[in-house]
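User: Can you predict the 3D structure for this chain?
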Amino acid sequence: MPYLIGAVVVALLALAAVPVLASRRRPPRAAPVAPIPTTPTTPTAPAVATAVTSDPPPVPPVANAANVENATPKRTPDDADFEITKPEELERFADVGGMDATKEELRDTLAIVLDKTGIAAAYDIEWNGVLIYGPPGVGKTLLARATAGELGLHFVYVSTADIVSKWIGEAPRKIDTAFAFAARHTPCLLFFDEFDSLASERGDSHHLEYRRLTNQLLESLEKYRETSGLIVMAATNAYDSLDPAVIRPGRFDRHIRVDLPDLAARRAILWVHLRHRPVGDDLNVEELAQLSEGLTGAAIESVVEQAAIETAARATQQHHILPIPQARLLAKLDAAVSDDRS
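Assistant: Here is the predicted structure, written as structure tokens:
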């Protein structure tokens, strides 16, 4: 019996020692740790159905100087600094006093060149280029503008200042740019004022850059000669100084001289500049036309303009419209004639 009790006690002691031994032999199990994400996590928005497009939506540019510069279109020959006037903004032949025969010649001959019914081709007419020459102030530029207005052409005006440059090669480039600019605005009349400064006769004394300019002018005249709807016209006060190669037939086929206005032309010029102004009952255009012999059209226009300005000054003081008196016109005309003779 004592042996049985002893065995039971030994067994109970053995059972009590098992957990202690287990804790010594095995390390405690660590709690599970969540994996560390490789990228930051953000809340996921609900899915929204969107239309699928081939291109991503545009990103608004940042407002800075670089973007402002990039937003400006690059300059092209179409942006060249040449003056262009629409037909409806130009004078007409009715605004040009005198020159009746010249206006008729220009209207008839240029209308044939611009004709689209095939008449010019039927008669094998291929001419182009009109050179107007004469003393200063006789109305060459006005005649060119009125020609474009009468025929419904755009008018591109080119002066020496538009072409001449201090940079080598720039002037010849501008010549071709002027032709290209006019060709893109057809129907168009391309007008070169002060043509002698661009096309005077070449010689050994001429600078190489000037010879290049003249050569480019010749090349452009040939290149754009048959451009449909493009008329080339030039004006000069120094006809004898022009390079014969530039003004020969095939480049400038019409040479038209504009002289000082005769009596009929002076009468017409006076009416053009007086018709829209208040004049007195004593107005005598015939007397004014007789006394203005030797004056250019520009000088006659200046006479009327000065008389109108003085009358307008008095009208401003008296607060009502006053007519331009004949005596004031005669006084201004006498001064102009005296200046012309001195």
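The longest helix spans residues 2-25. The chain has two domains: 77-257, 263-341.
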